[in-house]
Specification:
2 domains, binds adenosine-5'-diphosphate, binds magnesium ion, Nucleotidyltransferase, domain 5, single chain
């Protein structure tokens, strides 16, 4: 499996001495895997190389199928997918590691693909596929995975985990919200005063509904730059029906996934009306839904956010970004993470490299104000790399 591209940062000196960690991330959009090879000096990241590998269509279809709420597949299909995805992740990791022959990688942080996330009774579990033993074996590099379940065990939501990383790289003298527009929109709130807690939650859908709707009607994987959505007109009555969903009114902490926000959800909320709408108008309406739920979630916060940092693939959706900007209170600064030196497509992959480093160093991460966990936890399980054969 060949990564689409490996981009090496030309400003990274080969003789640099910081430790290298590789983060692998595939989110709810199911667009593929993002990888970032990161050098850390103390805790500050410097990206050495990045790559994105799209999922082969058949693998993507199997992953999409399994994340559907009422999936009826077999245990064999599940376990084979766990293994097949691990091969994709391992091969991708191997290619990036091989692109830097003079440096050794301390560990890989592999998020895996979430196929089930139910952080409440009666299930209280979350599961990410992509067998880490296979990654550790094929690369020879110690692999950290299963980052979420320690948080769940401590009574947390297991998500989001990235706010701890955001606080390292995006903190500023202004109260800041980091908005990651992935399949789901995740928001991190970084207060200025250390007395105020960092918050992190999912405001609702971002790309997932946009991707699914355009795929249904235009056979396109996503709405490039939001052009199709921008060609439609928002349907106010449908928008109201969507906004009435209880999730948008649920207090924090909260997290959600594509097992909830999907086309079945859309059909259920809109009923017969869905058939009467022009498809482009519904795309405009879904874009507006994300813009409203993101901005309203920020307005409900206990502090005034004056700076918003956008990242994730949705940061390329010009129409969505313009709508978010127009709904923000006057005086709020909106910037892309690239302006702060971090490519919006790799923030999450860099975060999992950072989380792997934390695990290797046995450092607990305090997510109490974010996930609701009862205590700070060391996150992730270690799968040792097996570089040498037995004697
Ligand atoms: N040029 C673009 N215009 C509009 N949307 C885009 C563009 N590039 C990427 N995206 C969106 O970003 C998504 C991928 O974002 P990503 O941050 O990887 O999400 P996830 O973490 O859920 O995988 C794609 O599915 C697509 O919807
Ligand atoms: Mg992605």
């Amino acid at each position: 499996m060949t990564p689409q591209r490996i981009a090496t940062n030309p400003s990274t000196l080969p003789q640099s001495s910081g430790s290298l960690y590789l983060g692998l991330m595939s989110g709810t959009s199911l667009d593929g895997v993002d990888a970032a090879l990161v050098e850390f000096t103390k805790n500050l990241p410097r990206v050495v190389a990045t790559a994105h590998t799209p999922f082969p269509p058949s693998l993507r279809e199997r992953l999409a199928d399994i994340t559907r709420r009422h999936w009826q597949g077999s245990m064999e299909a599940l376990l084979k997918l766990d293994h097949d995805l691990a091969i994709v992740l391992a091969d991708m990791a191997q290619e990036i590691i091989a692109s830097q022959p003079k440096r050794s990688v301390a560990a890989i942080g592999s998020h895996g693909q979430t196929v089930f996330h139910a952080p409440s009774e009666p299930i209280w579990n979350t599961w990410q596929l992509g067998d880490p033993s296979v990654i550790a074996y094929r690369t020879g590099v110690t692999t950290v995975a299963d980052f979420r379940r320690a948080d769940l065990a401590a009574g947390g939501q297991g998500a989001p985990l990235t706010p701890a990383f955001h606080s390292q790289v995006f903190a500023s003298p202004h109260p800041t919200a980091v908005v990651n527009l992935g399949g789901i929109a995740n928001i991190t709130v970084l207060p200025v005063s250390p007395e105020q807690p960092i918050l992190g939650f999912d405001s609702g859908p971002a790309n997932t509904l946009l991707d699914q709707w355009i795929f249904r009607h235009q056979s396109q994987p996503y709405d490039r730059d939001g052009h199709w959505g921008a060609s439609g007109r928002v349907d106010p009555s449908s928008l109201q029906r969507l906004l009435q969903d209880a999730y948008f009114h649920t207090p924090l902490p909260k997290s959600t996934g594509t097992d909830y926000f999907n086309l079945d959800w859309l059909k259920h909320r809109l009923g017969d009306r869905i058939a009467t709408l022009k498809p482009a108008d519904l795309q405009a309406t879904l874009t507006e839904l994300t813009a409203i739920t993101v901005t309203e979630a920020m307005q409900k916060l206990p502090m005034n956010v004056t700076r918003v940092v956008l990242c994730g693939g949705g940061a390329h959706n010009t129409f969505l970004c313009t709508r978010i900007e127009s709904l923000l209170p006057e005086g709020t600064e909106l910037i892309h993470s690239s302006l702060l030196g971090i490519d919006p497509d790799f923030v999450e992959a860099i975060a999992f490299a950072w989380l792997a480093k934390r695990r290797i160093e046995n450092i607990a991460i305090d997510l109490r104000s974010i996930t609701g966990a009862k205590q700070a936890m060391v996150l992730g399980a270690i799968y040792p790399g097996q570089e040498t054969s037995c004697s």
